[in-house]
TrEMBL record:
This is Dynamin N-terminal domain-containing protein. It is found in: Membrane. Residues 86-283 form the Dynamin N-terminal domain. Its main location: membrane. SUPFAM superfamilies: P-loop containing nucleoside triphosphate hydrolases. InterPro entries: Dynamin_N, Mitofusin_fam, P-loop_NTPase.
Amino acid sequence: MYSNSATKLETLFSHVEDAYRERARQHTKQYILAFVKNFEYLFQYTNLKYKYGDSKIFGPEIKSIQENLVKIKSLAEELDNKFMLFVMGSGKNGKSTLINALAGKQVAKESISPETWKIDVFTNYEKSESIKLKFKDGSEKIYSKEEALEYLQNEDLKVRESKKIIRAKRDEARDSGLSIEALEEKLQELQKYYLYRSDVIEMVTPIKNSKLLESYNLVDTPGLNQEIDGMVISNAKEYYSKADGIIWVLPGDRIAGAGDKKEIERVLKEYGNPQNIIAVINRLDNIIANGQTVDGVIADAKRFYGDIFNEFIPISARQARHAQEVLKNKPLSDEAYKNAISEYEASRFDYLLNHLNRTLFSDALALQINAKIKNTGLVYSDIESKIHDIYETLSEVNDKRLTLQKELEEDTMNRFMRWVDKFTEFAKKEVSRVRMTSDLYNDELWRMEPRKFNSFVKEHIVKPDEVLVGIQRIVNELCLDFSEFLNYKNSISLFVEFKHLYPVESNINFAVEYNEWDDFSNIASNYTGGGIVDTFIRGVDRMFNEEKSKRITDQFYQQLEKIIKNIISELGDKIDGYITSIECNMENSFSEMYGSSVYVEEFKAILIELMNCKLGEMRDLSVRDLIYNS
Protein backbone atom coordinates (compact mmCIF):
# COMPACT_ATOMS: atom_id res chain seq x y z
CA MET A 1 0.00 0.00 0.00
CA TYR A 2 2.81 2.34 0.92
CA SER A 3 4.50 1.68 -2.38
CA ASN A 4 1.25 2.31 -4.26
CA SER A 5 0.71 5.63 -2.44
CA ALA A 6 4.26 6.70 -3.14
CA THR A 7 3.80 5.94 -6.82
CA LYS A 8 0.57 7.95 -6.93
CA LEU A 9 2.25 10.84 -5.11
CA GLU A 10 5.19 10.73 -7.48
CA THR A 11 2.81 10.72 -10.44
CA LEU A 12 0.90 13.68 -8.97
CA PHE A 13 4.06 15.70 -8.49
CA SER A 14 5.16 14.77 -11.99
CA HIS A 15 1.86 16.08 -13.42
CA VAL A 16 2.13 19.26 -11.36
CA GLU A 17 5.71 19.77 -12.49
CA ASP A 18 4.79 19.18 -16.13
CA ALA A 19 1.87 21.59 -15.82
CA TYR A 20 4.08 24.22 -14.24
CA ARG A 21 6.75 23.80 -16.91
CA GLU A 22 4.17 24.20 -19.65
CA ARG A 23 2.51 27.14 -17.95
CA ALA A 24 5.88 28.81 -17.31
CA ARG A 25 6.78 28.47 -20.98
CA GLN A 26 3.43 29.87 -22.12
CA HIS A 27 3.62 32.70 -19.59
CA THR A 28 7.02 33.73 -20.93
CA LYS A 29 5.89 33.30 -24.52
CA GLN A 30 2.85 35.54 -24.08
CA TYR A 31 4.94 38.16 -22.30
CA ILE A 32 7.31 38.36 -25.26
CA LEU A 33 4.60 38.24 -27.94
CA ALA A 34 2.50 40.93 -26.24
CA PHE A 35 5.42 43.34 -26.43
CA VAL A 36 6.12 42.46 -30.07
CA LYS A 37 2.48 42.97 -31.05
CA ASN A 38 2.38 46.47 -29.61
CA PHE A 39 5.76 47.47 -31.04
CA GLU A 40 5.10 45.91 -34.42
CA TYR A 41 1.83 47.80 -34.85
CA LEU A 42 3.55 51.16 -34.52
CA PHE A 43 6.52 50.09 -36.56
CA GLN A 44 4.56 48.65 -39.47
CA TYR A 45 2.31 51.73 -39.50
CA THR A 46 5.37 53.91 -39.80
CA ASN A 47 7.03 51.87 -42.49
CA LEU A 48 3.95 51.36 -44.66
CA LYS A 49 2.56 54.88 -44.44
CA TYR A 50 5.71 56.84 -45.03
CA LYS A 51 7.70 54.42 -47.19
CA TYR A 52 10.93 55.07 -45.37
CA GLY A 53 11.84 51.45 -46.00
CA ASP A 54 12.83 52.40 -49.56
CA SER A 55 15.44 54.97 -48.55
CA LYS A 56 19.12 54.12 -48.92
CA ILE A 57 20.09 55.06 -45.37
CA PHE A 58 17.03 54.06 -43.35
CA GLY A 59 15.90 51.20 -45.58
CA PRO A 60 18.53 48.70 -44.37
CA GLU A 61 18.01 49.82 -40.78
CA ILE A 62 14.25 49.35 -41.04
CA LYS A 63 14.75 45.95 -42.63
CA SER A 64 17.11 45.00 -39.82
CA ILE A 65 14.50 46.07 -37.25
CA GLN A 66 11.88 43.97 -39.03
CA GLU A 67 14.21 40.99 -39.00
CA ASN A 68 14.92 41.53 -35.30
CA LEU A 69 11.19 41.58 -34.58
CA VAL A 70 10.96 38.24 -36.37
CA LYS A 71 13.87 37.03 -34.21
CA ILE A 72 12.02 38.01 -31.04
CA LYS A 73 8.85 36.28 -32.18
CA SER A 74 10.95 33.26 -33.06
CA LEU A 75 12.45 33.27 -29.55
CA ALA A 76 8.94 33.21 -28.11
CA GLU A 77 7.79 30.42 -30.42
CA GLU A 78 10.89 28.37 -29.60
CA LEU A 79 9.65 28.05 -26.03
CA ASP A 80 7.36 25.39 -27.48
CA ASN A 81 10.43 23.54 -28.70
CA LYS A 82 13.28 21.72 -27.04
CA PHE A 83 16.36 23.22 -25.41
CA MET A 84 18.66 24.73 -28.08
CA LEU A 85 22.24 23.60 -27.41
CA PHE A 86 24.60 25.60 -29.60
CA VAL A 87 28.14 24.53 -30.50
CA MET A 88 30.25 27.57 -31.32
CA GLY A 89 33.85 28.30 -32.14
CA SER A 90 36.20 28.60 -35.04
CA GLY A 91 35.62 26.30 -37.98
CA LYS A 92 39.15 24.95 -37.47
CA ASN A 93 38.67 23.87 -33.86
CA GLY A 94 36.91 20.55 -34.53
CA LYS A 95 33.43 21.94 -33.95
CA SER A 96 31.67 19.71 -36.50
CA THR A 97 33.42 16.61 -35.15
CA LEU A 98 32.17 17.43 -31.67
CA ILE A 99 28.61 17.87 -32.95
CA ASN A 100 28.77 14.48 -34.62
CA ALA A 101 30.06 12.95 -31.38
CA LEU A 102 27.24 14.53 -29.38
CA ALA A 103 24.67 13.29 -31.88
CA GLY A 104 26.31 9.87 -31.96
CA LYS A 105 26.44 9.88 -35.76
CA GLN A 106 27.54 11.84 -38.78
CA VAL A 107 25.23 14.87 -38.99
CA ALA A 108 27.44 17.95 -39.44
CA LYS A 109 29.65 18.60 -42.42
CA GLU A 110 33.27 18.43 -41.29
CA SER A 111 34.97 21.24 -43.17
CA ILE A 112 37.74 23.65 -42.27
CA SER A 113 36.12 26.53 -44.15
CA PRO A 114 32.33 26.56 -43.79
CA GLU A 115 30.70 28.86 -46.33
CA THR A 116 27.11 28.82 -45.15
CA TRP A 117 25.63 31.75 -43.27
CA LYS A 118 22.85 29.77 -41.66
CA ILE A 119 22.63 27.67 -38.52
CA ASP A 120 22.03 23.93 -38.77
CA VAL A 121 19.51 22.67 -36.23
CA PHE A 122 19.53 18.93 -35.69
CA THR A 123 16.36 17.67 -34.06
CA ASN A 124 14.84 14.32 -33.20
CA TYR A 125 13.28 12.38 -36.07
CA GLU A 126 9.48 12.62 -35.97
CA LYS A 127 8.28 10.39 -38.79
CA SER A 128 9.45 12.75 -41.50
CA GLU A 129 12.81 13.10 -43.18
CA SER A 130 11.86 16.43 -44.77
CA ILE A 131 14.15 19.37 -44.14
CA LYS A 132 12.75 22.70 -43.01
CA LEU A 133 14.33 25.97 -44.11
CA LYS A 134 13.55 29.09 -42.11
CA PHE A 135 13.92 32.59 -43.57
CA LYS A 136 14.59 36.08 -42.21
CA ASP A 137 10.99 37.19 -42.74
CA GLY A 138 9.74 34.41 -40.47
CA SER A 139 8.49 32.15 -43.26
CA GLU A 140 9.29 28.45 -43.46
CA LYS A 141 9.43 25.97 -46.34
CA ILE A 142 9.63 22.19 -46.40
CA TYR A 143 12.02 20.48 -48.82
CA SER A 144 13.32 17.03 -49.47
CA LYS A 145 16.93 16.56 -48.46
CA GLU A 146 18.08 16.80 -52.08
CA GLU A 147 15.99 19.93 -52.75
CA ALA A 148 17.24 21.65 -49.59
CA LEU A 149 20.88 20.92 -50.36
CA GLU A 150 20.47 22.13 -53.93
CA TYR A 151 18.82 25.34 -52.70
CA LEU A 152 21.59 25.99 -50.18
CA GLN A 153 24.31 25.20 -52.71
CA ASN A 154 22.82 27.84 -54.99
CA GLU A 155 22.80 30.29 -52.09
CA ASP A 156 26.45 29.52 -51.35
CA LEU A 157 27.26 29.99 -55.03
CA LYS A 158 25.66 33.44 -54.96
CA VAL A 159 27.73 34.31 -51.90
CA ARG A 160 30.97 33.15 -53.54
CA GLU A 161 30.17 35.00 -56.78
CA SER A 162 29.46 38.20 -54.84
CA LYS A 163 32.81 37.82 -53.06
CA LYS A 164 34.57 37.58 -56.42
CA ILE A 165 32.86 40.77 -57.57
CA ILE A 166 33.82 42.51 -54.33
CA ARG A 167 37.47 41.52 -54.64
CA ALA A 168 37.63 42.65 -58.26
CA LYS A 169 36.00 46.01 -57.48
CA ARG A 170 38.19 46.42 -54.39
CA ASP A 171 41.37 45.85 -56.42
CA GLU A 172 40.14 48.23 -59.12
CA ALA A 173 39.43 50.89 -56.50
CA ARG A 174 42.87 50.50 -54.91
CA ASP A 175 44.60 50.84 -58.25
CA SER A 176 42.60 53.90 -59.26
CA GLY A 177 44.35 56.18 -56.81
CA LEU A 178 41.39 56.90 -54.57
CA SER A 179 41.97 58.83 -51.38
CA ILE A 180 41.97 56.96 -48.08
CA GLU A 181 38.53 58.35 -47.26
CA ALA A 182 37.13 57.38 -50.66
CA LEU A 183 38.64 53.89 -50.42
CA GLU A 184 37.04 53.36 -47.01
CA GLU A 185 33.69 54.41 -48.46
CA LYS A 186 34.25 52.03 -51.39
CA LEU A 187 34.63 49.11 -48.97
CA GLN A 188 31.44 50.18 -47.21
CA GLU A 189 29.62 50.35 -50.53
CA LEU A 190 30.88 46.90 -51.57
CA GLN A 191 29.76 45.33 -48.32
CA LYS A 192 26.37 47.00 -48.41
CA TYR A 193 25.41 46.68 -52.07
CA TYR A 194 27.46 43.87 -53.59
CA LEU A 195 27.70 41.19 -50.90
CA TYR A 196 24.94 38.62 -51.31
CA ARG A 197 23.22 37.81 -48.05
CA SER A 198 21.07 34.73 -48.04
CA ASP A 199 17.61 35.02 -46.51
CA VAL A 200 18.02 31.52 -45.06
CA ILE A 201 18.66 31.61 -41.32
CA GLU A 202 18.08 27.98 -40.31
CA MET A 203 18.09 24.52 -41.75
CA VAL A 204 16.27 22.09 -39.47
CA THR A 205 17.26 18.47 -40.10
CA PRO A 206 15.56 15.48 -38.42
CA ILE A 207 17.98 12.82 -37.15
CA LYS A 208 17.05 9.24 -36.30
CA ASN A 209 18.19 7.32 -33.23
CA SER A 210 20.10 10.03 -31.38
CA LYS A 211 19.66 9.87 -27.62
CA LEU A 212 20.67 13.48 -26.98
CA LEU A 213 18.26 14.76 -29.61
CA GLU A 214 15.31 13.14 -27.82
CA SER A 215 15.42 15.99 -25.30
CA TYR A 216 17.54 18.70 -26.91
CA ASN A 217 18.12 20.34 -30.28
CA LEU A 218 21.74 20.46 -31.33
CA VAL A 219 22.83 23.51 -33.29
CA ASP A 220 25.86 23.95 -35.55
CA THR A 221 26.96 27.48 -36.42
CA PRO A 222 29.30 28.96 -39.03
CA GLY A 223 32.85 29.81 -38.07
CA LEU A 224 33.39 32.56 -35.56
CA ASN A 225 34.32 35.23 -38.02
CA GLN A 226 33.95 35.56 -41.77
CA GLU A 227 35.71 38.47 -43.39
CA ILE A 228 36.59 39.81 -46.83
CA ASP A 229 39.76 41.88 -46.59
CA GLY A 230 38.95 43.30 -43.19
CA MET A 231 35.19 43.66 -43.74
CA VAL A 232 33.36 41.59 -41.13
CA ILE A 233 30.51 39.93 -42.99
CA SER A 234 29.38 37.48 -40.33
CA ASN A 235 30.14 36.84 -36.70
CA ALA A 236 28.94 34.80 -33.77
CA LYS A 237 26.62 37.38 -32.27
CA GLU A 238 24.27 36.94 -35.24
CA TYR A 239 23.47 33.46 -33.91
CA TYR A 240 24.16 33.86 -30.20
CA SER A 241 20.77 35.30 -29.29
CA LYS A 242 18.99 32.03 -30.17
CA ALA A 243 21.01 29.87 -27.79
CA ASP A 244 19.64 28.34 -24.59
CA GLY A 245 23.00 26.78 -23.81
CA ILE A 246 26.41 26.97 -25.48
CA ILE A 247 29.43 24.76 -25.86
CA TRP A 248 32.34 26.94 -26.92
CA VAL A 249 35.07 24.91 -28.61
CA LEU A 250 38.69 25.93 -28.03
CA PRO A 251 41.68 24.38 -29.84
CA GLY A 252 43.82 22.57 -27.30
CA ASP A 253 46.90 22.46 -29.52
CA ARG A 254 46.86 26.26 -29.95
CA ILE A 255 45.03 27.39 -26.85
CA ALA A 256 46.64 30.83 -26.91
CA GLY A 257 45.28 31.71 -30.36
CA ALA A 258 44.40 35.39 -30.34
CA GLY A 259 41.70 35.08 -32.99
CA ASP A 260 39.43 32.89 -30.87
CA LYS A 261 39.73 35.08 -27.80
CA LYS A 262 39.14 38.23 -29.82
CA GLU A 263 35.87 36.87 -31.19
CA ILE A 264 34.72 35.57 -27.78
CA GLU A 265 35.45 38.95 -26.21
CA ARG A 266 33.63 40.71 -29.05
CA VAL A 267 30.50 38.64 -28.41
CA LEU A 268 30.63 38.72 -24.62
CA LYS A 269 31.31 42.45 -24.56
CA GLU A 270 27.80 42.92 -25.90
CA TYR A 271 26.05 40.04 -24.19
CA GLY A 272 27.96 39.69 -20.94
CA ASN A 273 29.37 36.52 -19.39
CA PRO A 274 26.40 34.13 -19.26
CA GLN A 275 25.91 31.14 -16.98
CA ASN A 276 24.79 28.89 -19.81
CA ILE A 277 28.16 28.51 -21.52
CA ILE A 278 30.68 25.67 -21.26
CA ALA A 279 34.26 25.81 -22.51
CA VAL A 280 35.50 22.64 -24.18
CA ILE A 281 39.19 22.21 -25.02
CA ASN A 282 39.28 19.94 -28.04
CA ARG A 283 42.09 17.83 -29.52
CA LEU A 284 43.20 16.25 -26.29
CA ASP A 285 44.86 13.47 -28.33
CA ASN A 286 47.13 16.03 -30.02
CA ILE A 287 47.93 17.58 -26.65
CA ILE A 288 48.99 14.25 -25.15
CA ALA A 289 50.95 13.34 -28.30
CA ASN A 290 52.89 16.60 -27.97
CA GLY A 291 53.96 15.70 -24.44
CA GLN A 292 51.54 17.97 -22.58
CA THR A 293 49.31 16.88 -19.73
CA VAL A 294 45.61 17.46 -19.20
CA ASP A 295 46.35 19.56 -16.13
CA GLY A 296 48.92 21.54 -18.07
CA VAL A 297 46.56 22.51 -20.88
CA ILE A 298 43.83 23.41 -18.37
CA ALA A 299 46.33 25.66 -16.60
CA ASP A 300 47.21 27.30 -19.94
CA ALA A 301 43.52 27.80 -20.70
CA LYS A 302 42.91 29.40 -17.31
CA ARG A 303 45.77 31.84 -17.86
CA PHE A 304 44.41 32.86 -21.23
CA TYR A 305 40.64 32.50 -20.77
CA GLY A 306 40.24 32.56 -16.97
CA ASP A 307 38.50 35.93 -17.06
CA ILE A 308 35.87 34.49 -19.43
CA PHE A 309 35.18 30.86 -18.47
CA ASN A 310 34.93 29.31 -15.02
CA GLU A 311 35.60 25.71 -15.99
CA PHE A 312 37.31 23.89 -18.87
CA ILE A 313 36.56 20.37 -20.16
CA PRO A 314 39.39 18.82 -22.21
CA ILE A 315 38.25 16.17 -24.70
CA SER A 316 39.14 14.57 -28.01
CA ALA A 317 36.08 14.74 -30.21
CA ARG A 318 37.93 12.81 -32.92
CA GLN A 319 38.68 9.88 -30.61
CA ALA A 320 35.13 9.86 -29.25
CA ARG A 321 33.66 9.89 -32.73
CA HIS A 322 35.95 7.14 -33.99
CA ALA A 323 35.17 4.94 -31.00
CA GLN A 324 31.44 5.44 -31.53
CA GLU A 325 31.71 4.27 -35.13
CA VAL A 326 33.79 1.23 -34.18
CA LEU A 327 31.38 0.21 -31.45
CA LYS A 328 28.49 0.33 -33.91
CA ASN A 329 30.03 -2.47 -35.95
CA LYS A 330 28.94 -5.89 -34.77
CA PRO A 331 30.22 -8.41 -34.11
CA LEU A 332 33.50 -7.07 -32.71
CA SER A 333 36.45 -9.07 -31.54
CA ASP A 334 37.32 -8.72 -27.88
CA GLU A 335 40.49 -6.85 -28.79
CA ALA A 336 38.66 -4.44 -31.10
CA TYR A 337 36.01 -3.85 -28.44
CA LYS A 338 38.64 -3.21 -25.75
CA ASN A 339 40.56 -0.82 -28.02
CA ALA A 340 37.37 1.11 -28.85
CA ILE A 341 36.42 1.37 -25.18
CA SER A 342 39.96 2.44 -24.32
CA GLU A 343 39.90 5.06 -27.07
CA TYR A 344 36.50 6.36 -25.90
CA GLU A 345 37.73 6.62 -22.29
CA ALA A 346 40.88 8.41 -23.47
CA SER A 347 38.67 10.94 -25.26
CA ARG A 348 37.16 11.97 -21.88
CA PHE A 349 33.89 12.48 -23.74
CA ASP A 350 31.89 11.14 -20.76
CA TYR A 351 33.33 13.98 -18.66
CA LEU A 352 31.65 16.39 -21.02
CA LEU A 353 28.33 14.51 -21.01
CA ASN A 354 28.31 14.32 -17.22
CA HIS A 355 29.13 18.00 -16.97
CA LEU A 356 26.27 18.82 -19.35
CA ASN A 357 23.89 16.76 -17.23
CA ARG A 358 25.01 18.49 -14.02
CA THR A 359 24.80 21.99 -15.47
CA LEU A 360 22.85 22.84 -18.60
CA PHE A 361 20.56 19.81 -18.71
CA SER A 362 19.73 19.61 -15.00
CA ASP A 363 18.09 23.03 -15.04
CA ALA A 364 17.08 23.20 -18.69
CA LEU A 365 13.68 24.87 -18.14
CA ALA A 366 15.04 27.76 -16.07
CA LEU A 367 17.98 28.21 -18.42
CA GLN A 368 15.70 28.13 -21.45
CA ILE A 369 13.25 30.69 -20.05
CA ASN A 370 16.03 32.93 -18.75
CA ALA A 371 17.86 32.68 -22.07
CA LYS A 372 14.75 33.62 -24.05
CA ILE A 373 14.02 36.58 -21.78
CA LYS A 374 17.63 37.76 -21.78
CA ASN A 375 18.05 37.26 -25.51
CA THR A 376 14.76 39.03 -26.19
CA GLY A 377 16.15 41.97 -24.23
CA LEU A 378 19.42 41.81 -26.15
CA VAL A 379 17.70 41.74 -29.54
CA TYR A 380 15.35 44.52 -28.44
CA SER A 381 18.32 46.61 -27.30
CA ASP A 382 19.60 46.37 -30.87
CA ILE A 383 16.17 47.51 -32.13
CA GLU A 384 16.10 50.31 -29.57
CA SER A 385 19.57 51.43 -30.62
CA LYS A 386 18.58 51.49 -34.30
CA ILE A 387 15.37 53.42 -33.58
CA HIS A 388 17.38 55.96 -31.61
CA ASP A 389 19.99 56.21 -34.36
CA ILE A 390 17.28 56.72 -37.00
CA TYR A 391 15.71 59.47 -34.90
CA GLU A 392 19.02 61.23 -34.29
CA THR A 393 20.09 60.93 -37.91
CA LEU A 394 16.71 62.06 -39.22
CA SER A 395 16.71 65.07 -36.88
CA GLU A 396 20.26 65.99 -37.87
CA VAL A 397 19.79 65.70 -41.64
CA ASN A 398 16.42 67.43 -41.57
CA ASP A 399 17.93 70.32 -39.61
CA LYS A 400 20.67 70.42 -42.22
CA ARG A 401 18.06 70.43 -45.00
CA LEU A 402 16.14 73.31 -43.43
CA THR A 403 19.33 75.25 -42.81
CA LEU A 404 20.50 74.74 -46.38
CA GLN A 405 17.13 75.82 -47.67
CA LYS A 406 17.12 78.96 -45.53
CA GLU A 407 20.71 79.82 -46.41
CA LEU A 408 20.01 79.24 -50.10
CA GLU A 409 17.19 81.77 -50.02
CA GLU A 410 19.01 84.32 -47.86
CA ASP A 411 22.38 84.08 -49.61
CA THR A 412 20.77 84.27 -53.03
CA MET A 413 18.78 87.36 -52.08
CA ASN A 414 21.86 89.02 -50.61
CA ARG A 415 23.88 88.27 -53.73
CA PHE A 416 21.05 89.44 -55.96
CA MET A 417 20.84 92.75 -54.09
CA ARG A 418 24.61 93.23 -54.32
CA TRP A 419 24.38 93.01 -58.10
CA VAL A 420 21.38 95.34 -58.14
CA ASP A 421 23.57 97.78 -56.19
CA LYS A 422 26.36 97.38 -58.76
CA PHE A 423 23.96 98.22 -61.58
CA THR A 424 22.67 101.17 -59.55
CA GLU A 425 26.20 102.44 -58.97
CA PHE A 426 26.98 102.02 -62.66
CA ALA A 427 23.83 103.92 -63.63
CA LYS A 428 24.69 106.75 -61.21
CA LYS A 429 28.19 107.10 -62.64
CA GLU A 430 26.96 107.09 -66.22
CA VAL A 431 24.18 109.59 -65.53
CA SER A 432 26.66 111.85 -63.74
CA ARG A 433 29.05 111.57 -66.69
CA VAL A 434 26.32 112.43 -69.21
CA ARG A 435 25.18 115.43 -67.12
CA MET A 436 28.69 116.79 -66.70
CA THR A 437 29.48 116.33 -70.38
CA SER A 438 26.21 117.83 -71.61
CA ASP A 439 26.69 120.82 -69.27
CA LEU A 440 29.91 121.57 -71.10
CA TYR A 441 28.04 121.64 -74.41
CA ASN A 442 24.85 123.21 -73.09
CA ASP A 443 24.96 126.53 -75.03
CA GLU A 444 26.21 124.81 -78.12
CA LEU A 445 23.36 122.30 -77.93
CA TRP A 446 20.79 125.15 -77.93
CA ARG A 447 22.26 126.57 -81.10
CA MET A 448 22.82 123.24 -82.84
CA GLU A 449 20.95 122.37 -86.01
CA PRO A 450 18.41 119.54 -85.57
CA ARG A 451 20.04 117.29 -88.12
CA LYS A 452 23.31 117.36 -86.12
CA PHE A 453 21.83 117.25 -82.66
CA ASN A 454 21.12 113.50 -82.25
CA SER A 455 24.41 112.33 -83.73
CA PHE A 456 26.37 114.86 -81.61
CA VAL A 457 24.62 113.79 -78.41
CA LYS A 458 25.29 110.10 -79.17
CA GLU A 459 28.91 110.50 -80.23
CA HIS A 460 30.15 113.14 -77.78
CA ILE A 461 27.90 112.87 -74.74
CA VAL A 462 26.08 109.55 -74.38
CA LYS A 463 28.61 107.30 -76.12
CA PRO A 464 26.21 104.28 -76.20
CA ASP A 465 28.85 101.77 -77.35
CA GLU A 466 30.92 102.45 -74.24
CA VAL A 467 27.82 102.31 -72.04
CA LEU A 468 26.81 98.97 -73.50
CA VAL A 469 30.34 97.60 -73.05
CA GLY A 470 30.16 98.62 -69.39
CA ILE A 471 26.80 96.91 -68.98
CA GLN A 472 28.06 93.77 -70.74
CA ARG A 473 31.11 93.68 -68.49
CA ILE A 474 28.90 93.73 -65.39
CA VAL A 475 26.61 91.11 -66.91
CA ASN A 476 29.58 88.83 -67.69
CA GLU A 477 30.91 89.17 -64.15
CA LEU A 478 27.41 88.55 -62.81
CA CYS A 479 26.95 85.37 -64.87
CA LEU A 480 30.32 83.98 -63.78
CA ASP A 481 29.63 84.84 -60.15
CA PHE A 482 26.17 83.23 -60.16
CA SER A 483 27.47 80.16 -62.00
CA GLU A 484 30.03 79.56 -59.25
CA PHE A 485 27.57 80.45 -56.50
CA LEU A 486 24.72 78.26 -57.79
CA ASN A 487 27.06 75.34 -58.52
CA TYR A 488 28.34 75.54 -54.96
CA LYS A 489 24.83 75.78 -53.51
CA ASN A 490 23.63 72.89 -55.64
CA SER A 491 26.55 70.67 -54.62
CA ILE A 492 26.20 71.27 -50.87
CA SER A 493 22.42 70.91 -51.08
CA LEU A 494 22.58 67.35 -52.44
CA PHE A 495 22.40 64.52 -49.91
CA VAL A 496 24.72 61.67 -50.87
CA GLU A 497 25.77 58.46 -49.15
CA PHE A 498 29.44 58.38 -50.12
CA LYS A 499 30.59 61.98 -50.49
CA HIS A 500 34.31 61.14 -50.84
CA LEU A 501 33.73 58.27 -53.24
CA TYR A 502 31.25 60.12 -55.42
CA PRO A 503 31.83 63.87 -55.03
CA VAL A 504 28.96 65.92 -56.36
CA GLU A 505 29.59 67.58 -59.71
CA SER A 506 27.38 70.51 -60.60
CA ASN A 507 27.40 72.03 -64.10
CA ILE A 508 25.16 75.07 -63.87
CA ASN A 509 25.99 77.59 -66.61
CA PHE A 510 24.22 80.75 -65.55
CA ALA A 511 23.54 83.21 -68.41
CA VAL A 512 21.32 86.29 -68.74
CA GLU A 513 19.85 86.63 -72.23
CA TYR A 514 18.76 89.89 -73.94
CA ASN A 515 16.23 90.34 -76.67
CA GLU A 516 17.83 93.59 -77.83
CA TRP A 517 19.97 96.49 -76.61
CA ASP A 518 18.65 100.04 -76.60
CA ASP A 519 20.89 102.36 -78.64
CA PHE A 520 19.81 105.59 -76.87
CA SER A 521 18.62 107.03 -80.21
CA ASN A 522 15.65 108.89 -78.76
CA ILE A 523 17.61 111.40 -76.80
CA ALA A 524 16.63 114.60 -78.70
CA SER A 525 14.84 117.92 -78.27
CA ASN A 526 12.77 120.36 -80.28
CA TYR A 527 13.57 123.99 -80.95
CA THR A 528 17.18 123.51 -81.90
CA GLY A 529 19.01 124.99 -84.87
CA GLY A 530 19.55 128.53 -86.35
CA GLY A 531 17.52 131.31 -87.98
CA ILE A 532 15.75 134.37 -86.50
CA VAL A 533 12.52 132.56 -85.71
CA ASP A 534 14.34 129.59 -84.22
CA THR A 535 16.56 131.91 -82.24
CA PHE A 536 13.50 133.73 -80.82
CA ILE A 537 11.67 130.50 -80.01
CA ARG A 538 14.85 129.07 -78.47
CA GLY A 539 15.17 132.10 -76.28
CA VAL A 540 11.59 131.82 -75.09
CA ASP A 541 12.06 128.09 -74.54
CA ARG A 542 15.12 128.63 -72.35
CA MET A 543 13.07 131.07 -70.23
CA PHE A 544 10.43 128.48 -69.38
CA ASN A 545 12.28 125.11 -69.66
CA GLU A 546 15.16 123.33 -68.01
CA GLU A 547 18.63 123.30 -69.34
CA LYS A 548 19.15 121.22 -72.46
CA SER A 549 21.79 119.15 -70.57
CA LYS A 550 19.22 118.28 -67.88
CA ARG A 551 16.72 117.10 -70.45
CA ILE A 552 19.35 114.97 -72.18
CA THR A 553 20.41 113.51 -68.85
CA ASP A 554 16.84 112.70 -67.86
CA GLN A 555 16.13 110.95 -71.15
CA PHE A 556 19.42 109.04 -70.91
CA TYR A 557 18.58 107.97 -67.36
CA GLN A 558 15.13 106.78 -68.43
CA GLN A 559 16.52 104.64 -71.22
CA LEU A 560 19.41 103.31 -69.10
CA GLU A 561 16.99 102.54 -66.29
CA LYS A 562 14.82 100.61 -68.73
CA ILE A 563 17.78 98.50 -69.89
CA ILE A 564 18.91 97.75 -66.32
CA LYS A 565 15.38 96.92 -65.19
CA ASN A 566 15.07 94.46 -68.04
CA ILE A 567 18.38 92.86 -67.07
CA ILE A 568 17.41 92.66 -63.39
CA SER A 569 14.02 91.23 -64.30
CA GLU A 570 15.71 88.59 -66.48
CA LEU A 571 18.19 87.94 -63.67
CA GLY A 572 15.40 87.46 -61.12
CA ASP A 573 13.52 85.04 -63.37
CA LYS A 574 16.68 83.05 -64.03
CA ILE A 575 17.58 82.89 -60.35
CA ASP A 576 14.06 81.80 -59.38
CA GLY A 577 14.28 78.98 -61.90
CA TYR A 578 17.65 77.76 -60.61
CA ILE A 579 16.62 78.06 -56.97
CA THR A 580 13.55 75.95 -57.71
CA SER A 581 15.77 73.43 -59.49
CA ILE A 582 18.27 73.30 -56.59
CA GLU A 583 15.47 72.88 -54.04
CA CYS A 584 14.00 70.10 -56.19
CA ASN A 585 17.42 68.40 -56.37
CA MET A 586 17.75 68.77 -52.63
CA GLU A 587 14.37 67.19 -51.97
CA ASN A 588 14.95 64.36 -54.44
CA SER A 589 18.34 63.50 -52.96
CA PHE A 590 16.97 63.79 -49.41
CA SER A 591 14.07 61.49 -50.28
CA GLU A 592 16.38 58.97 -51.89
CA MET A 593 18.69 58.90 -48.87
CA TYR A 594 16.24 59.35 -45.99
CA GLY A 595 12.66 59.40 -47.27
CA SER A 596 10.25 62.22 -48.08
CA SER A 597 10.73 65.41 -46.07
CA VAL A 598 6.96 65.94 -46.06
CA TYR A 599 6.44 63.44 -43.25
CA VAL A 600 9.60 64.08 -41.21
CA GLU A 601 7.91 65.53 -38.15
CA GLU A 602 5.19 62.88 -38.11
CA PHE A 603 7.81 60.17 -38.53
CA LYS A 604 9.87 61.61 -35.67
CA ALA A 605 6.77 61.63 -33.45
CA ILE A 606 6.20 57.92 -34.14
CA LEU A 607 9.88 57.16 -33.57
CA ILE A 608 9.50 58.78 -30.14
CA GLU A 609 6.52 56.50 -29.49
CA LEU A 610 8.63 53.51 -30.51
CA MET A 611 11.44 54.60 -28.18
CA ASN A 612 8.91 54.82 -25.36
CA CYS A 613 7.60 51.33 -26.17
CA LYS A 614 9.77 49.61 -23.57
CA LEU A 615 10.20 45.93 -22.85
CA GLY A 616 8.98 45.82 -19.26
CA GLU A 617 10.10 43.42 -16.57
CA MET A 618 8.26 40.12 -16.69
CA ARG A 619 6.09 39.32 -13.67
CA ASP A 620 6.95 35.99 -12.05
CA LEU A 621 4.46 33.19 -12.49
CA SER A 622 2.62 32.59 -9.21
CA VAL A 623 0.89 29.46 -7.91
CA ARG A 624 -2.41 31.30 -8.35
CA ASP A 625 -1.58 31.77 -12.06
CA LEU A 626 -0.87 28.07 -12.31
CA ILE A 627 -4.11 27.02 -10.59
CA TYR A 628 -6.52 29.40 -12.28
CA ASN A 629 -4.95 29.65 -15.71
CA SER A 630 -3.85 26.10 -16.42
